[in-house]
Amino acid sequence: MSEKTHHDKLPIRMLHDRVLVRQDAAEGERRSGGGILIPATAAVGRRLAWAEVVAVGQNVRTVEPGDRVLYDPEDRAEVEVRGTPYVLMRERDLHAVAADRFEGSEDSTGLYL
């Protein structure tokens, strides 16, 4: 029998260059660009994953809450906050950022999600 403590309700602030993200739902089966069905159990080389930024530390400069980021799921620290699983990482561990604010900017590649 577990009882909730006062610590379960404390506010959380991310520190330094840390980024807290919520992973996208597991995809399971997916289709290739040519329409070939790829089963969830298929062995894939090092595959990066997308996640939504939930919170950032005060020294984070390139991402904001609500952005989508590309990261290596093998390089992660998982944490559960109030029953929800998250991934905690450093800003430098992110590979790409997708956000509406980049539309039409020089930093944009012209690719869209």
TrEMBL record:
Keywords: Chaperone. InterPro entries: Chaperonin_GroES, Chaperonin_GroES_sf, GroES-like_sf. It holds the Pfam family Cpn10. Belongs to the GroES chaperonin family. Heptamer of 7 subunits arranged in a ring. Together with the chaperonin GroEL, plays an essential role in assisting protein folding. The GroEL-GroES system forms a nano-cage that allows encapsulation of the non-native substrate proteins and provides a physical environment optimized to promote and accelerate protein folding. GroES binds to the apical surface of the GroEL ring, thereby capping the opening of the GroEL channel. PANTHER family: 10 KDA HEAT SHOCK PROTEIN, CO-CHAPERONIN GROES. This is 10 kDa chaperonin. It comes from Streptomyces lannensis.
